[in-house]
Amino acid sequence: MNCKNVQNRLSAYIDGELPGKEMLELRHHVHECASCSREAEEIQALKAMIAHTNSYAPPEGFESRLVAHVFREERAAAASGWRTHLGLASVAVAAAMAAFVVASKVSEPSKQPLTAADSYSSEITQDQAYYSGMDPLNGSTVVPASYAGQ
Amino acid sequence: MLFTLFKDQAITAQDRSALFESLLKSSYRQAYNLACRLTGNPAEAEDLVQETFLRAYRFFHRYDEALPFTSWLYRIMTNAHIDSVRRRSRLKTLSLEQPSNSTAASWELPDHESTADRTLMQDTMGENVQMALQTMTPEFRTAVLLADVEGMAYEEIAEVMETSIGTVRSRIHRGRKQLRKFLTKRCPQTYGGFGSEL
Prior knowledge:
The complex is a heterodimer of chains A (150) and B (198).
Chain A: H1 3-7, H2 10-14, H3 20-32, H4 34-52, H5 62-107, H6 116-131
Helix pairs in contact in A: 3-4
Chain B: H1 2-39, H2 42-58, H3 69-87, H4 103-106, H5 115-122, H6 124-134, H7 138-148, H8 154-160, H9 165-186, H10 188-191
Helix pairs in contact in B: 1-2, 1-3, 2-3, 3-8, 6-9, 7-9, 8-9
């Protein structure tokens, strides 16, 4: 096992990402070889440096901005949908009410009361028809012809 | 019946939104930290996190709960970051030959006056590492950060980056090599030992 070959796998060795047998081989070589041992220490130091540098915290108000950004489209679409539904519902209710009113007017029976004049006029007409020998209700002869003039 | 169906669908969509919001609130800080490391810039990090969560929400129906949410989220973030770097040629990469005394001027950090930003700026070691990270390709940077900051196993990184374990191993090895080379050249007093074998 030469040093070049070992050093190409040192990162994976430090990360514990080599198969068991290779791990043992590299451990043995690193223990024996000063140059590879130093290389392994440097990789470990770099890894620790990257891991332990200060982490970034999000700025004030970022959470609410993020939530607003992510749900913006959906909430805008929902608001628009409700407005559309509300508009359509209003139109439908107005149309239904108009139809009901029209239907009521058409189907309502005429309830105009008879006046006194109408009543007298009808009676006079019926009397005149009777005296002329006709039944005013069905138009047939009321007095038989054989009795006429008696 | 139709009304019940619509009602059920509405409840499911509501639950889905509530679940996503809860996952967002529990993971956005970690995601922001990784985004800062990836972009090296809080303003770009904010954009990256927003883009990541927006994409995640659009495709939330495809999320497999067997996978940790952060792994799935990082996959989206990694793709978004690599897309963004490739799309924008104006990415601020720093040359290895850049003089060391221009550090603060060349690293364009918006003044958010947040404790974290100030701490990082004051921390020379962290600053140099962050600058070194920005000289790398997004693929190398992502692999190194997922391993060293997030502590992910190579298999998990391979899943996040949608590549093979062999590629992850190579990216991490070469990425660390580049970091050491940068730090040795830039700050030989501090990192003199680094890269002696390079």
